Amino acid sequence: MLAVGITGGIGSGKSAAADRFAELGVPVIDADVIARQIVEPGRPACKKVIEVFGAEFATADGGLDRSKLRKMVFSVPEKKTQLESILHPEIHAEILRQLSDLSAPYAIVVIPLLAEGNRTYPLDRVLVIDAPAKLQIDRVSNRDNESAQEVERIIHLQATRKDRLEMADDVISNTGTKQSLRNSVDELHSKYLTIADDMGD
Ligand code: ADP
Fold it and tell me: Is 105 touching ligand 1 by the criterion CB < 6 Å?
């Protein structure tokens, strides 16, 4: 099974691209959804985080107080590394488990923050959806009713376009219409099917 990661900055068009892959029948796994699932109450990663960081990070139902954790790791970088060392192996294992349950030539794994953190995901290729900041701002302002300043602030917190492009095996420059994005995905779909087919030989 060929695993293709999709990443890109906020509003670059990751979800729109993933939606098109899904329309073509490609299974799509979302790393953000997995990151939430693995810390659900009672799951090993949830227990481990509470064990390491303390009961004050548990919610009443035994889950994780994600916003409290976010605040802590934001102010203490070592804690961020420590938290990631608990969560990443679990996320990777869960991605691999979900991939192994699939029977398709290839699958898409959407990983919004691939360039920002630990890059060692179980992927065969990385597809970067690229767009200039101006378009990111316009699109997110429209999508989320967010101010341009807020979107700009998030863009600055994220990896640079250059960093992201350096890790790309494939790039979609999402500067045209939605139809041209769909066309680019359709082309890559053929390419990935060929690669997956060659892997099977
Ligand atoms: P991401 O998942 O990377 O944050 P989205 O896929 O949600 O970004 O795209 C951000 C917004 O821009 C969405 O409302 C989406 O429909 C829109 N969008 C994406 N690509 C295009 C495009 N090529 N033309 C116009 N709108 C687009």
Answer: no
The neighbour count for residue 74, using CB atoms within 10 Å, is 11
pLDDT (tens digit per residue) in 69-98: 989 988 888 998 899 899 999 999 999 999
Which pLDDT tens digit goes with each residue over 116-126? 877 788 999 99
* pLDDT for the residue 191: 98
Q: Whose CA is nearest to atom 4 of ligand 1?
A: 11
Of ligand 1's atoms, which has the minimum distance to the CA of residue 135?
Answer: 12
Q: What six digits make up the tokens of 110?
A: 């959407």
Residue 158 C-beta-side C-alpha neighbours within 13 Å: 22
- Measured from the Cα of 143, ligand 1's closest atom is 14
